[in-house]
Write a structure and sequence with these properties.
This protein is mostly helical. Helices cover about 55% and strands about 0% of the residues. Pfam families: Fungal_trans_2.
């Protein structure tokens, strides 16, 4: 999306529009983002964004229909209403059939799936149906949260539909190892979408339309992580020119998907979200956790850092609700729970102040390091939960070592808060591979000694006083217990 780096201004969202030049990137394979230098540059870019205000409008719900694909009931002939954009797709598409074999796709019939009006090129139309069918039938064999929403939104704009078709083409191409890594068909489809979008962005009214926003969301959804930041910066600028996030409140589906994309990428980069929470779309669990004496002690000692304990209380309410339903497993495929309840708490976590900049500058204090360690442990916990919810990338690979890096670079005395130290270490260890667990076991044992406890069951009791998910991570808990007892025996010898 637009490579123009945008700042979120604290001024009114109704400020005058400014003319900006937008530039787009081509689609390539995902890049590695674990490089510390790249992560530092990303954080620096994210810090330059300032929060913008939002306006609020009365909402109403839009319902989008999708072709059922029923071979007995589908109607031949022109398509009208919400599917009229397919005519625009047909007019723009003029693809050369240089595609790999698609014999693994389900057989097509003239009336199954999408039906095109007066097709100029039967081969082209059949190919479009094949690409759509591939995605709708789960051809990539991966669970995709909110898939129906994405297909509904893709049908609302031809440029957005190009992005969807391009992604399907790229996935099909990956299933053929002898084919080039880059699908020529996918590149052509992406290029058509970019060309269409570039023209519309220069138009005062069309440049901030729902169609443009939908297309940018499609790019952010399907593109790689590195360019996600570019797409969202461009989207934030478009929404600002439009009049603020409140102008999207009339379309719940666009607002909800924007929230999903914003949270997903921001979590990977551990940056503040671009947009505020759509409170009217979010729900909360009924039960509310009670602050433990441990958290009360922290608030009394460091009242200026009580934001982290406020979050831990809300997180404990959410995780307790999840843990009660973890074994039956239905909750792990509940898209609406993830998007409306779980992501609301994730947004709260990502909105917490970060002390990374001060730590990098060498400005440290024990309480700052401890608070940052708790925040990072929460990030790791929610990465584990995102993985449980099949939200990929979950953030595990990006964040699993963040606590160890912090505590190794900035060792502090946790006296008076060894219980919080223990919670941070145990929570983090749930995400650590077995061959790298020894450092954590040594630290956990040391924190336990400070508390005067020696058994794993006592460790679990301390965990329960902050936040604990014994059912959700039961297998991992049993394994950590074995590691802890083994390390204790070795240490005594």
């Amino acid at each position: 999306m637009p490579t123009k780096r945008t700042k979120r201004s604290g001024s009114s969202v109704t400020s005058e529009q400014t003319t900006k030049t937008h530039e787009f990137v081509t689609i390539m394979n995902p890049n590695e983002i674990r490089d510390p230098l790249k992560q530092k540059l990303i954080r620096q870019h994210a810090r330059r964004r300032e929060d913008s205000n939002s306006t609020f409008r009365k909402t109403f719900k839009l319902v989008f229909d999708l072709p059922s694909g029923d071979t007995q009931t589908a109607v031949e002939g022109p398509i009208t209403g919400s599917h009229s954009m397919l005519s625009a797709v047909r007019e723009h598409l003029d693809l050369t059939p240089f595609v790999p074999s698609i014999q693994f796709l389900r057989p097509l019939t003239p009336v199954r799936g999408l039906v095109f009006a007066s097709p100029h090129s039967p081969e082209m139309d059949i190919r479009v149906v094949q690409l759509v069918d591939f995605m709708r039938s789960g051809g990539d064999k991966k669970f995709c949260p909110l898939m129906d929403f994405w297909w509904n939104i893709a049908q609302l704009d031809s440029a957005a539909f190009f992005v969807t078709l391009a992604h399907a083409s790229r996935l099909i191409n990956k299933q053929h190892p002898n084919e080039p890594k880059q699908s020529s068909e996918a590149v052509e489809l992406y290029t058509k979408s970019i060309q269409c979008l570039q023209k519309r962005l220069q138009m005062p009214k069309e440049g901030t339309s729902d169609g443009v926003i939908i297309t940018i969301l499609e790019f952010a959804y399907y593109d790689d992580l590195v360019r996600w930041l570019v797409h969202m910066s461009g989207l934030a600028e478009v929404v600002k020119r439009r009049g603020g996030i409140g102008t999207l409140y009339s379309s719940e589906i666009i607002l909800l998907l924007n929230f999903w994309i914003d949270i997903s990428g921001s979590f990977i980069f551990d940056i503040a979200p671009f947009f505020p929470r759509p409170h009217h779309l979010l729900t909360q669990v009924a039960s509310k956790a009670v602050p433990s004496t441990i958290l009360q002690r922290w608030n009394a000692k460091f009242p200026e850092l009580s934001d982290i304990t406020t979050f831990l209380i809300d997180a404990a309410s959410l995780t307790s609700y999840i843990d009660e339903r973890a074994i039956e497993g239905v909750i792990w495929k509940d898209d609406m729970f993830v998007s409306r309840t779980f992501n609301g708490v994730v947004h709260q976590l990502l909105s917490l102040q970060r002390d990374t900049e001060a730590l990098e500058a060498g400005i440290t204090s024990p309480q700052i390091v401890m608070r940052e360690a708790m925040r990072r442990a929460c990030i790791i916990l929610f990465a584990l939960l995102r993985d449980k919810f099949s939200v990929h990338p979950s953030g595990m690979s990006q964040h699993s070592n963040s606590v160890k890096e912090l505590l190794s670079q900035h060792p502090v005395d946790w006296s008076g808060f060894s219980d919080l130290h223990l919670w941070v270490l145990v929570t983090t260890s749930f995400a650590i591979e077995d061959d790298k667990i020894s450092w954590y076991m040594d630290e956990i044992r040391g924190a336990a000694v400070q508390l005067g406890i020696s058994g794993w069951n006592d460790v679990v009791e301390v965990m329960k006083s902050v936040l604990w998910m014994g059912k959700t991570f039961r297998t991992r808990n049993d394994l950590l217990k074995d590691f802890f007892e083994l390390s204790t025996v070795i240490n005594e010898v």
